[in-house]
Amino acid sequence: MKLVFASNNAHKLAEVRAIMPAGVDVLSLRDIGFVQEIDETGTTLEENSKIKANAVYHWLLDNGHLTLDGVFADDTGLEIDALNGKPGVYTARWYLSDEGAKEAKTELENFALNRAKALRELKNKTNRGCQFRTVITLIRGEKTLQVEGIVRGKIATEEYGEGGFGYDPIFIPEGYEKTFGELPAELKNTISHRARALAELVKVLHD
Known about the structure:
- With 207 residues, the chain is α/β, with parallel strands linked by helices.
- The protein has one domain: Maf protein (Alpha-Beta Complex).
- The chain is 32% helix and 23% strand.
- It is built from 6 helices and 7 strands.
- The protein has helices at residues 10-19, 29-32, 45-62, 107-121, 185-191, 193-205; strands at 2-5, 25-27, 71-80, 87-88, 129-140, 143-155, 171-173.
- Strands 1, 2, 3, 4, 5, 6 and 7 form a 7-stranded mixed β-sheet that branches.
- Helix 5 crosses helix 6.
C-alpha cells in the first residue's frame, strides 16, 4: 500500500514511517513532486488537516497519480488547560502572537521561541495540565474520514532533554516523570498523540 503523507517535515516523516506497519509505504510531498504552498486557513485542527489532504489529493488526480492508495494529512495542537486550550490550531508558530515578534530564521529557532513562550505564559500558574491532540484526515477514492489521538500531560518548569522536536523538551506525558525530549524515541512513538492517531488510522486502513 502506498500512501502520501501531506508533509515534508523531516521529524514528522521519520516518526510516521517508524510507526506505520510493514507493507505501508509512506511518501512525502517531495517524493511525489508536490511543491506548492498550502494555505492553512482553518480555525480548527480538523479544518486544517482536511485542507491539506484535499489540496494534495486533487493535485494527485490532476497529475495522474492514480496508482497511489490515498492521502493523509495531520494537524497537531498543544491545548493548555490554564490558557483555555491555547495555542491549539496556532501551535506551530505561537510565538508570533507576541507583540513585535519577528519571523524565526530556522526551524530550530521557531521551536525554541514557542517553548519559551509556553514557559512564560505558565510562569505563575499552578495548573500546568495540557494535552497534545493530533487530527488525521484520510482521503481514499470518494471516502474522507478523520481520526484523532490525544496524550495528556503537563508543561515542565524548564526544558529537559534534547530529543524529539517542537515542544518535546517541555512536555511531560501522563504517567512519566521525563519529557518527550528525554524519553527514547521508540517509547515516544508508542504513546504520543501522533502515534495514537496513526494507530486509529491503521485500523481504518484494514477495515
